[in-house]
Amino acid sequence: MADLSGKSVIVTGAAGGIGAPTAALLAERGAKLLIADVDIAGAETVARTVGGIAFHLDLAEEPSIATMVKTALDRFGRVDALCNIAADQSPELYPRDRDIETMEAEVWDRTFRINARGTMLACKHVLGPMKGQGAGAIVNMASNLGLQGSLIQSAYAASKAAIIQLTRSIAASHGKSGIRCNTVSPGLTLTRSVRTTIPREIREIVEADALTPYLGDPRDIAYMVAFLISDEARYITGENFVVDGGTASHMPSYAPMRALFAKG
Ligand SMILES: NC(=O)c1ccc[n+]([C@@H]2O[C@H](COP(=O)([O-])OP(=O)(O)OC[C@H]3O[C@@H](n4cnc5c(N)ncnc54)[C@H](O)[C@@H]3O)[C@@H](O)[C@H]2O)c1
């Protein structure tokens, strides 16, 4: 089990469906947390429940990001890890993010502003302090949609592909300073919001492509984040870890073939 005793960790998107359970797991493992989210009421609830300091973060604004890092340094004296979990998944954005032919520049820009630019800026502001410490670990959250083509969410997918490459650049340029940077790419994960907003037939289609008998829940993602920021992962950097029940690992014909074999 990854021990995080005494580590000071910033978690962005910590009020969210994956972020809050991740914050809870990191706290269980001994981490001191800065619980950052644009949803400050949600962040405060998480802070009260799992322990930690709630911070109102707007990833669209660089001064807000700089203040987040300064707050962690003021309160904890150092930043051992940054977990970039936040993403703009507003319900009003999702239906407008389809294919490129119909893409509104505003949808593209807004998606990139939070997911890619915001994640990059959060990394930017912890690199100096981590370099000064001679150590640090960053985990950026992408998605298996950043690895393969899909009929939906072209802007979101491209922003997640950008994060996977951002991770490699940081790992390459800062590895010798003792800073590790990795990406976690979840597949469809059964957060409360996914359970209530994604229609059951869509979930069944996705589940048919998973190699596991079930879709993952937020703790499945949190375990990977906890491991990657722990000292047990000291030799792992620049990598993308797909946590999607094997969905992105196989031939596209998997689900229909399985159905055909089942018929005999
Ligand atoms: N749930 C899934 O099925 C799934 C699948 C693949 C990848 N992911 C990725 O996992 C991460 C977490 O997803 P989730 O399901 O918990 O989403 P979520 O929407 O429940 O949580 C995202 C959090 O980010 C916060 N946020 C949004 N805009 C922000 C901003 N400008 N500044 C600061 N915080 C902001 C939100 O308030 C929210 O708490 C995201 O990066 C998402 O892209 C999720």
Describe this structure as you would to a colleague:
The structure is a single chain. It is globular, with a radius of gyration of 18 Å. A seven-stranded parallel β-sheet has the order 3-2-1-4-5-6-7, with helices on both faces. The mean pLDDT is 97. With 264 residues, it is of the alpha/beta class. Helix 1 runs parallel beside helix 2 (40-50), helix 3 runs parallel beside helix 4 and helix 4 packs parallel to helix 5. 47% of the residues lie in helices and 14% in strands. It starts with 7 loop residues before the first strand and ends with a helix. The protein is built from nine helices and seven strands, in the order E-H-E-H-E-H-E-H-E-H-E-H-H-H-E-H. It has one domain: Rossmann fold (3-Layer(aba) Sandwich). The structure holds nicotinamide-adenine-dinucleotide. The site of nicotinamide-adenine-dinucleotide has 29 residues, from helix 6. Nicotinamide-adenine-dinucleotide is lined by residues 12-13, 15-19, 37-39, 42, 57-60, 85-89, 114, 141, 143, 186, 188-189, 191, 193-194.
